[in-house]
Amino acid sequence: MDAERMARLDALLDRQDIADCIVRFARGMDRFDRALFLSAFHSDATIAAGPFVGGAEALYDWATGLHEAGQEATHHNLLNQTIEIDGAQAHVETYYLFVGRNRDATNWVAGGRYLDRLEKRAGHWKIALRTNIIEWSGVVPTLPLPFADWPGITANGVSRRDGSDPSYQRPLVNNRPAHVPE
Length: 182
Known about the structure:
Protein name: SnoaL-like domain-containing protein
Order of helices and strands: HHEEHEEEE
Number of helices: 3
Strand content: 35-45%
Pfam family, one: SnoaL_4
CATH architecture: Roll
Strand order of the largest sheet: 2-1-6-5-4-3
Helix content: 25-40%
């Protein structure tokens, strides 16, 4: 393989590792998976998110407390992303859409961008600095979850904010019988 192609493959692998890092943050927050969340940050990272400014461990404690008190479920949806790599440093902009199903029967929706500086240390890309730009927010009414009263709908599991969430099941299996609605 020629050197140019090898360099492109190395850059592609770095981009994928960076994108995976950002996903670990989001999934770790939504599933209340502390280890997964912290794996996205260097231990000396600084994060500025809303009124919070500090390290990753303190952010996790503050944010999960906020989400647990206010919401039954949260989704940190990651959208458009630009990644600029310069050696062992990368600057990443990730658009996001946050949705929280609130305990007061409303849904909170917000959009913005994560601006991250990642550093590759000991072969691993992690966030060294994050700032959160919140660009809009709103509340929308809650509707009943679709098919919530259908018999057996929860046989494959229900949303949980811990390791019992169906997304952690390995191997993933289907526990529902075949059924085609009329």
